Amino acid sequence: MIQIGIIGCGTIGSVLAKTIQTKFSRFARLSYVSDINPAQIEKLRKKLKSVPFRSVSTPELIKKSGFVIETASVKAAEEVIPKVLRQGKDVLILSVGGILKVKNLDRLLAKSSGHIYVPSGGIAGVDAVLAARMGQIKRVQITTRKPLRSLENAPFFLESGLRPEQIKKPTLIFQGNAAEAIDNFPENVNVAVTLSLAGVGARKTRVRVFTSPTYRHNMHEIQIEGSFGRMISQVMNLPSRENPKTSALAIASAIAILEKIFKRIKIGT
Ligand SMILES: NC(=O)c1ccc[n+]([C@@H]2O[C@H](COP(=O)([O-])OP(=O)(O)OC[C@H]3O[C@@H](n4cnc5c(N)ncnc54)[C@H](O)[C@@H]3O)[C@@H](O)[C@H]2O)c1
Q: What is the number of other CB atoms lying within 10 angstroms of the CB of residue 67?
């Protein structure tokens, strides 16, 4: 039985905690949680009355768990990944931007017996990009469209001088690579980093962000060209009820990757 520890008991962490109990109880149990906000842990305790998980510090959680799930923030992921890998453990990372920030990641991975799992999130086509990389990839671009209210607190608005209230209609507010995109929108474009890790890397993955107060969905369109041909994918995501920045499909994708880890049949690239 795998002892799971979840870092970050918000929207995704809570759903995964519940799913471990309802769907994966033959393989794993939720044993430890950590969160910088104790109220979030209390909320989870009320939702999962029958699960006797313990609330511990993040370092203790990493030490005691057999499998770590990070559902907290890019900063948390950056700090957690080296600790988990040094202890030879596996980690599922949702705040994928944190992977780019880890110093000497290749060396850490080479020395560790642990693994980093990255779900596809709210995009379609990661399987095709992984396969396309076996040949040559010429160009990868992701265009993200998100409702203004889900971007309002992004560092982008502090640094660009543009104010959210000035945006009245669909507007292209950002163009750059995936590394620049995650610095500007750390809570919104983790999928751009996922795409970059699957394909040509963060510096070569082109990212465009559109926003509008009129948008109701989190939309992601991917275009990729390579020696295999061309692929275009488009997903119109419903935002999750608890956190409009997080797409319902991203949560489902995290559950699906756990299923892939636990089950004996593994579908998809
Ligand atoms: N990979 C993807 O496709 C994808 C999709 C959506 C969200 N995300 C990312 O996943 C993460 C979780 O998303 P969410 O919707 O559950 O967010 P949320 O805001 O609902 O929950 C985050 C929780 O983590 C806690 N937290 C923050 N920093 C922490 C730290 N250093 N240590 C411990 N706990 C901490 C918060 O108190 C909160 O309870 C975010 O970083 C988000 O950007 C990734």
A: 24
Pocket of ligand 1 (CB under 6 A): 7-13, 34-37, 40, 58, 71-74, 76, 94-96, 121-122, 187, 190-191, 194, 243, 246, 250
Q: 160 and 90 share a domain?
A: no
Residues 190-243 pLDDT 10s: 999 999 999 999 999 999 999 999 999 999 999 999 999 999 999 999 988 888
**195, 246, 251, best to mutate for ligand 1 pocket (most atoms within 8 Å of CB):** 246
pLDDT in tens, 136-179: 999 999 999 999 999 999 999 999 999 999 999 999 999 999 99
115 is an active site residue: no
The tokens for 5 are 């520890």
Q: Is residue 163 located within the same domain as residue 223? A: yes
**DSSP-derived 3-state class of residue 250:** helix
Closest CA to 78 of 93, 108, 98: 98
- Residue 7 belongs to domain spanning: 2-117
